[in-house]
TrEMBL record:
Transmembrane domains' residue ranges: 6-21, 28-48
GO biological process: adherens junction organization; calcium-dependent cell-cell adhesion via plasma membrane cell adhesion molecules; cell migration involved in gastrulation; cell morphogenesis; cell-cell adhesion mediated by cadherin; cell-cell junction assembly; convergent extension involved in gastrulation; ectoderm development
Domain of life assignment: Eukaryota
Domain Cadherin: 130-228, 229-346, 347-460, 461-568, 567-680
Cell compartments where the protein resides: Cell membrane; Cytoplasm
Protein name per UniProt: Cadherin-13
Alphabetical list of InterPro entries matching this protein: Cadherin, Cadherin-like_dom, Cadherin-like_sf, Cadherin_CS, Cadherin_pro_dom
SUPFAM superfamilies: Cadherin-like
One Gene Ontology term, aspect cellular component: catenin complex
Annotated keywords: Calcium, Cell adhesion, Cell membrane, Cleavage on pair of basic residues, Cytoplasm, Glycoprotein, GPI-anchor, Lipoprotein, Membrane, Metal-binding, Repeat, Signal, Transmembrane, Transmembrane helix
GO molecular function: beta-catenin binding; cadherin binding; calcium ion binding
C-alpha cells in the first residue's frame, strides 16, 4: 500500500513561507490557502491491492479526523488544525492485512476556515503515533519537533515517563534536529499512552523554551485473542420452555483497543453434543453472547431427550467476526431441568399381602413408576389411605431409598373379628403437577390383606380381679373364681389354670374350674401386703398347637382383725436420780393393726406392790403418756412393769416392761455411766417431751420419730 502526498507538501510549503517571510501578509496567505483548500480536499491517494479486486476492504486512519473515502482518498471529516507528524493507514479484508506510515513534512494542516496569525511560541510539538509490536531495527523515528528560534547553542531535551523516568529510555530526541525516536517494540496493552515534555536549553542546561507537552499514542494491533472469564459455563433450562428462552450468557474479554475492531467480538456455536434431536437446539446472540433455545417446547422434553445435559463449544472471534479475527473458546453445559409433568403410577392395580393376627410392622411395599427427575419433589411420592381403614389400624410411609410405599399394621389385627381387609391407596408427588397434567386412575391401587389365624392365649376377665377378704380366715377358704376364655372361638380348645406368682404362698387354684382357695392364713400385717392389698398372678393355658398362655391378676383387699397387741416406744427412758431435777419421760404405744383396732391406747403401771409410790403415769393424748419419778432413786437401771391396752373389739392387752435409766444430773448434764446411751444433754430430754406431744397431732411427724 502506498500514498501520494504532493498536495500536503504544497500546503506545508505555504505554511513555511508564512512563518519565514514577514512580507507575506495574512490576506495573501489566505488567498493561497483558499485556492489550495480546493485543490487539497484530497490530502493524498491510497494505493491498495490484495490481488482479489479489493473486495470488502476496510481502512482505518490513526487520526480520528481523517478517513479513506470510496475513491481511496484520504479526506478530512471536519476542519483539521493539527494532524501530527505521522499518520498511519490500516487496510484490511479477507485476503490482506497491511499498514502504511505517512511522515508529514510539517506540523499543521489547515482545512476549512483559517484565520492566519503569527504565534509567539516557536516550539512546535505535534502529537505522535507509534504502532505496537514494531520489529527491529531500532531506534525508529516517530516524528519531529520544530523550533523556529533554534540557535546553534540550543538543544532539545525530552523528559517524562518513558524518557528520563521509568520506564526509562523508551523514547529519545535528537538534541540538534528534534527528531523523536522509539527504542524498542511497545505493547499497547501495557501502556497505551505516554505523556512527555519537550523543551530547549542552552549549552549550560538553562531552560530556553518550554516545556511543551508531547503526547505519544500507541496504535493497537490485533495481538490479543478473546478470553472467556471461565473455561466452562453451566446453565439450566426448564423442560417445555418456549422457544427463545434465554438460558445463559457467555462473556469473553479482549485486551485490544475497545475503540477498534480488534476488540469487537462475535460469538458462534461451533458444536453441539449430542446433536439429537436436532444439531441446532440452541442459538447464541453473536453480539451479546446470550444462549437461547430454538427447539420447540414439545421437543424439549426431559423424559424423551437422549440426555439431560448438552455441551456447546462456543467460539468468540474478534475483528467483528471476520475470517482474520483471533478466536477463543469455552464450553457451555446446559442441563435440562425437570418439571412435574408426569404423575406417579402404581406398577400394579392390585397388591396382596397376609399378616398374622396380633402382629405389627410392614406387610407390603407398594411400587410406583414416575418418569420425572428422582432428585426433585416431582418424583418423590406421598402415599395415603383413602378407604378401608376405619379403625386407623394401618399407616403408610414413603421409603426414601426407593420411593416405595411401606404399608404397616400399627394396631394388631384380630382374625376372629375380620379375616380380610381391603384398602384403597392413593399416590401423589410432593410438588404439584403442571396445570395440563392430572392424577389418573393409575395413581390409585387396591391392597388386599388376609389376616392369618394365630393360636392366642386365653384372656382373663376381669383383669385384674378384685376381691375383699378378712385376714385370718380359715385355711382352705374360698377366695375367688377365675374366668379365662380362649379368643380362638373358631377352634374348640380347653383351658387349664395355674398359679404363676404367689409371693406369700397363701393361695391355690383348681386347674379346671379356676377356683382359688387359701392354703395358709392371710395376714394383713405381712410384708407382702401393701396398702392392705395382696396381689397374685395366675395363668391360663389352652391345648392348641402350640399351646398359648394368658395371665391374669387377683388382688385381695384384706380387712383387719385385732390380732396384734400394742407395744411401748421407746423401750428405754432416762431420768435424774434427784427427783428435783428432770424426772419425767414421755412414752407411747404402737399397734400393727389399723383403726379402729389401735388407739386410743391405755398405758398403766403393772400390778406390782408399792409401784405407784415410786412411779406415776399420766395420759398425754390417745397415743402417749408420761411416766414420772416421785422420789429420788439411786443411779441404776430399773424395769418398770406396764400394761398397754388397745381399743379393738375385743381389746388386746400387752404386759410389758419399760427400762428406766436413773442418771446423775449436774449443771444441765446427765451422766448415765453404764447406761446404754452416752451422756445426754438435759435439754434433749425436754425436746423429746415436746416432740412426743406434737406427734399426737401430726401423724407424719410420728412416723418420722418411730423411724428414728
Amino acid at each position: 500500500m502506498s500514498v501520494s502526498v504532493l498536495p500536503l507538501i504544497l500546503y506545508l510549503l505555504l505554511l513555511s513561507l508564512y512563518f519565514t517571510l514577514p512580507s507575506l501578509t495574512a490576506d495573501v496567505f489566505a488567498g493561497f490557502a483558499v485556492v489550495l483548500m480546493y485543490v487539497c480536499v484530497c490530502v493524498f491517494a491510497v494505493v491498495f491491492d490484495d490481488c482479489a479486486e479489493n473486495q470488502d476492504v476496510s481502512f482505518e486512519v490513526s487520526h480520528p479526523d481523517f478517513l479513506i473515502d470510496e475513491d481511496l482518498n484520504l479526506v478530512p471529516r471536519r476542519d483539521v488544525i493539527d494532524s501530527g507528524a505521522v499518520l498511519f493507514v490500516h487496510g484490511l479484508n479477507a485476503h490482506a492485512d497491511d499498514m502504511a506510515q505517512v511522515d508529514i513534512m510539517g506540523e499543521i494542516v489547515g482545512l476549512g476556515d483559517i484565520t492566519p496569525y503569527r504565534t509567539k511560541r516557536s516550539l512546535l510539538v505535534p502529537p505522535m503515533f507509534v504502532p505496537e509490536n514494531q520489529r527491529a531495527p531500532f531506534p525508529r523515528s516517530i516524528g519531529k519537533v520544530i523550533s523556529y528560534d533554534m540557535k546553534d547553542d540550543h538543544y532539545f531535551r525530552l523528559t517524562g515517563k518513558g524518557a528520563d523516568q521509568d520506564p526509562k529510555g523508551v523514547f529519545s530526541i535528537n538534541r540538534r534536529t528534534g527528531e523523536v525516536a522509539v527504542s524498542r517494540a511497545l505493547d499497547r496493552e501495557a501502556i497505551a499512552f505516554y505523556h512527555l515534555q519537550v523543551s530547549t536549553t542552552d549549552m549550560s542546561g538553562n531552560l530556553v523554551e518550554g516545556p511543551v507537552d508531547l503526547d505519544v499514542y500507541i496504535i493497537d494491533q490485533n495481538d490479543n485473542r478473546p478470553i472467556f472469564k471461565e473455561s466452562r459455563y453451566s446453565g439450566e433450562v426448564l423442560e417445555g420452555s418456549p422457544s427463545g428462552t434465554t438460558v445463559m450468557t457467555m462473556t469473553a474479554l479482549d485486551a485490544d483497543d475497545p475503540n477498534t475492531d480488534n476488540a469487537v467480538l462475535r460469538y458462534i456455536i461451533l458444536r453441539q453434543s449430542p446433536e439429537k434431536p436436532s444439531p441446532n437446539m440452541f442459538y447464541i446472540d453473536p453480539e451479546r453472547g446470550d444462549i437461547i433455545t430454538v427447539i420447540s417446547p414439545s421437543q424439549l422434553d426431559r423424559e424423551t431427550l437422549p440426555t439431560t445435559q448438552y455441551e456447546l463449544e462456543i467460539v468468540a472471534k474478534d475483528m467483528a467476526g471476520s475470517e482474520v479475527g483471533l478466536t477463543g473458546t469455552a464450553t457451555a453445559t446446559i442441563t435440562i431441568t425437570d418439571r412435574n409433568d408426569h404423575a406417579p403410577e402404581f406398577t400394579h392395580s392390585l397388591f396382596q399381602a397376609s399378616v398374622d393376627e396380633g402382629s405389627t410392622g410392614v406387610v407390603v411395599n407398594l411400587t410406583v413408576d414416575d418418569r420425572d427427575d428422582p432428585a426433585t419433589g416431582g418424583f418423590r411420592a406421598m402415599y395415603s389411605i383413602i378407604n378401608g381403614d376405619p379403625n386407623q389400624s394401618f399407616e403408610i410411609h414413603t421409603n426414601p431409598d426407593n420411593n416405595e410405599g411401606m404399608l404397616s399394621v400399627v394396631k394388631p389385627l384380630d382374625y376372629e373379628s375380620s379375616m380380610f381387609h381391603t384398602l384403597m391407596i392413593r399416590v401423589e408427588n410432593e410438588d404439584p403437577l403442571v396445570p395440563d397434567v392430572i392424577y389418573g386412575p393409575s395413581s390409585t391401587a387396591t391392597v388386599y390383606i388376609a389376616v392369618q389365624d394365630v393360636n392366642e392365649g386365653p384372656v382373663f376377665f376381669p383383669d385384674p380381679l378384685m376381691v375383699t377378704k378378712w385376714e385370718n380366715i380359715p385355711v382352705g377358704s374360698f377366695v375367688a373364681m377365675l374366668n379365662a376364655t380362649d379368643p380362638d372361638f373358631r377352634q374348640i380348645q380347653s383351658v387349664r389354670y395355674g398359679v404363676l406368682r404367689d409371693p406369700a404362698g397363701w393361695l391355690s387354684v383348681n386347674p379346671v374350674k379356676g377356683m382359688v382357695n387359701t392354703t395358709a392364713t392371710l395376714d394383713r400385717e405381712s410384708p407382702h401386703v401393701h396398702n392392705n392389698r395382696y396381689s397374685a398372678v395366675f395363668m391360663a393355658t389352652d391345648n392348641g398347637n402350640p399351646p398359648a398362655t394368658g395371665t391374669g391378676t387377683l388382688i385381695i383387699t384384706l380387712q383387719d382383725e385385732n390380732d396384734n397387741a400394742p407395744y411401748v416406744v421407746p423401750s428405754v427412758a432416762r431420768m435424774c436420780e434427784d427427783a428435783k431435777e428432770v424426772n419425767v419421760a414421755v412414752i407411747g404405744a404402737r399397734d400393727k393393726d389399723i383403726h379402729p383396732n389401735t388407739d386410743p391406747f391405755k398405758i398403766e403401771l403393772g400390778k406390782q406392790l408399792g409401784l405407784e409410790k415410786t412411779w406415776k403415769i399420766s395420759r398425754i393424748n390417745n397415743t402417749h403418756s408420761q411416766i414420772m419419778l416421785l422420789h429420788s432413786l439411786q443411779r441404776a437401771n430399773y424395769n418398770v412393769p406396764l400394761v398397754l391396752t388397745d381399743s379393738g373389739f375385743p381389746p388386746l392387752t400387752n404386759n410389758t416392761e419399760l427400762k428406766v435409766q436413773v442418771c446423775t444430773c449436774k449443771k444441765n448434764r446427765m451422766d448415765c455411766n453404764g447406761a446404754v446411751t452416752p451422756v445426754t444433754d438435759l435439754l434433749l430430754l425436754l425436746s423429746l417431751l415436746t416432740l412426743s406431744i406434737l406427734c399426737e397431732y401430726h401423724p407424719d411427724l410420728q412416723s418420722f420419730v418411730d423411724k428414728e
